[in-house]
Amino acid sequence: MKEVLRALIIVNSSEFSAFIKKILCDGGFDPHISTIRCMDQIKDVLKDEIWDIVLSEYYMPGFSVLDVLSLINENGYKLPLILISDESNEELLVRAIKAGACDFINKKNPARLVPAICRELEEIRKKIHIRSSEFAQVKKEQKCSDILESIMDVFFTLDENLHCIFWNKGAQKLTKISVKSALAKPFIELFPENPGKDIETILLESMRCLEQKTFTFSMEHDSSLRIFELNTYPVDYGISVLMRDITKRNFTEEFKKSQEKMRIELSQANELRILGNLTSGVAHEVRNPLNAISVVIEALFQELGDKTEFLPYKEHIFNHVERLKRLMQDLLELGKPIEKSKVTTLNLIDVIKESVKLWQCSGTNTPEIFFESDSDINLKIKADPHKIQQVFVNILENASQHSSGDSRIVIEMYSVDDSCCISFKDNGSGVEPHYLERVFDPFFTTRKRGTGLGLSIVKHIIESHGGTIKLYNNDSAPGCTVQIKLPFDDSSKDNSNIQALSDLWTTGVGPAPGA
Q1: What is the rounded CA–CA span in Å between residue 172 and residue 153?
Q2: How far apart are CA 373 and CA 484, in angstroms?
Q3: Which residues in 79-121 belong to E strands, given as ranges?
Q4: Which of 184, 192, 152, 505 is nearest to 353 (CA)?
Q5: Of the residues 81, 238, 243, 493, which has the fewest C-beta atoms closer than 10 A?
Q6: What is the pLDDT of residues 395-449, one digit of tens each?
Q7: Does residue 498 register a pLDDT over 50?
Q8: Dihedral of CA 256/258/263/267: which sign?
Q9: Given this model, what pLDDT does residue 374 score?
């Protein structure tokens, strides 16, 4: 396998650059080269990329090799530069050597180029091994030893050119590369696959800014996708890197979030149960006296007759009595559990069809209904038909009260995983954003005559059936959407699919999908 050689070539012509590349290929290298003719380009490529060697002619348009050497030395790149020229002026060649050029190759004798490059690369390897030995010596000191020996994660150190000078057992275990093989190798050969290149860019940026950086990335390891946290620590001679496998930690955090969410939901359910028991008791105690009041008031006004001056008082009293009756009935509904004996397998489309019929018969100026659904999905659930119908009628009524008579409500039915989804989308006035989190709270209402229990009862019924409900404003105003999820009836999974929705809506309840 040929050795990769990253060579920066500074020459006047692309033909000469191609000639040099051919010499390198014939000499056993796999050259990755960049040909430069402008001084500003040299600054950019030296800053942004890692190079093994620089090959340059003496004179270029607007600058010379002396300018290149000055740039390399001033910025501490420590790159070997070999001069390739047909220059015969010994004084100029001596000046180049004194400025830092490693060797001079005459264009008429290019055979010396490959041996010269090999010699310089070998010198670099020797220097890296010397640095590695120095690092090993420092490691023997107690403080350094305590730190390194306590590190169970992947830890390695790279020099300023991103060549490895320290490689711990965690790194060896992760990459299956021994310490002996890892030393002096460039980082990209230690992590050749993605995200190696991305990490190399971050390491360079961390060294350039002398800032510690932390980020996460995923990588295939032992036939599974693992998540790692990488921390960089720039030092005078390069950069140290600590990699930690946080796959389990991420799983634990997600599990904790799930547990906390479940705890909150159970707490809310318990609070609602307690509130339901309390309100049921209050409703039972108030309903009987309220009925007695209604009877007495009715008798009283019969005694008074049809005197017009008393009619406003009669209407006022009866309106408030009716409102209290509705409140007591809602309180009783809030406290009622689902009776298992009434739960049965239902075709959800039929339930919605009957609910729409019931709702349209009970009011005037009801918005127009449109239906959207996949034609081949199974929409069977287990539920109390009267409770579920109560939910749908309540939602339709709520949407109607916040919409004009000529508006529309779109009912959409589809499946997600093991749940059946029903969405009621209106184009009414919507909900104020700061009220969205409170719409299902008991006794919260924005209507003057509302009890604030309608949506609380809806939420209670849906959750009692193992489902979820949420309300949000439409992305494109106006209006809002109520989305309900109910689990499929497991016993119906093997049944044939329900007939197309367009075939079901033939009774005049509403227009067919797409109408």
Answers
A1: 10
A2: 14
A3: 81-85, 103-106
A4: 505
A5: 493
A6: 888 888 877 767 888 998 888 877 888 999 988 888 888 888 888 887 777 776 6
A7: no
A8: positive
A9: 65
Residue 493 Cα distances to 388, 444, 485, 496, angstroms? 21, 39, 17, 8
At residue 500, the pLDDT reads: 33
Closest CA to 83 of 112, 126, 54: 54
Separate counts of helices (H) and strands (E) for the chain: 16, 19
Residue 365: other Cβ atoms inside 10 A: 10
Residue 87 corresponds to which tokens in the numbers above? 């220059």
Note if the bond before 385 is cis, omega within 30 degrees: no
Residue type, 361: C
How far is it, in rounded angstroms, from Cα 7 to Cα 30? Answer: 10
Distance CA 487, CA 466 (A): 7
**Other beta carbons within 10 Å of 124:** 18
Cβ atoms 510, 368 nearer than 8 A: yes
**What is the number of alpha carbons within 13 Å of residue 410 lying toward its C-beta?**
12
3-state secondary structure 229-292: EEEEEEECCEEEEEEEECHHHHHHHHHHHHHHHHHHHHHHHHHHHHHHHHHHHHHHHHHHHHHH
Count of beta carbons in the 10 Å neighbourhood of residue 72: 21
For range 187-215, the mean pLDDT: 82
Report CA 181 to chain centroid distance, whole Å: 38
